Amino acid sequence: MMFKVKTILCSFMILSLFVVNTSSWAQSDTLPNDLGKKVNTPEGLKKVIDSKDLRFVIVDVRPETAYNNGHLPTAINIPRGFISDIKNPPPKDKYIILYCYGGLTSPAAGERMLADGYKYIFVLGGISDWPYELETSK
C-alpha cells in the first residue's frame, strides 16, 4: 500500500514539473519592444492578423492535415517547426508566432526554431479555444 502511494506521489510530481515547464514556455517570447504582450491573447493576435503587419509570420506547427482542416488566417504550415522540411522558410528577421492545437507541440517547435537561428519567437501555445473563424486549405 505504501509503495503505491509513493509511486502515485512521484508520478504526480514528475507530471506537474512537465506541465509547469510547458506552460512557462507557452507564454514566453523573444519579440522586441514588448510585442509579445500585443499578441498573447486571441483578440490581440486577431488585430495583428487583420492589420496585415508584415513583420509577423504566424506558423502552425501541427501536421499538414490538421492545418488543411483549419488554421489561423495568414498562417503558414511548418510541422513541428522543422524548417528543413519546407521549401520557402520565413526570413530569420521576422517575428514568428507559433501555435499548435493544445499547447504541447509549439514549445518544442520554438526551441527548434531558436536553434535554427530565428531570434524573434513567440509561442502562443494552443488554439483549441480560438474564438474566431479559421481558414481551410485544399
TrEMBL record:
InterPro entries in the cross-refs: GlpE_sulfurtransferase (IPR050229), Rhodanese-like_dom (IPR001763), Rhodanese-like_dom_sf (IPR036873)
Domain Rhodanese intervals: 55-136
PROSITE patterns attached to this UniProt entry: RHODANESE_3 (PS50206)
The entry's keywords: Signal
Pfam families listed in its UniProt record: Rhodanese (PF00581)
SUPFAM superfamilies to which the protein is assigned, alphabetical: Rhodanese/Cell cycle control phosphatase (SSF52821)
Leader peptide range in chain numbering: 1-26
Protein name as it appears in the record: Rhodanese-like domain-containing protein
Organism: Candidatus Desulfatibia vada
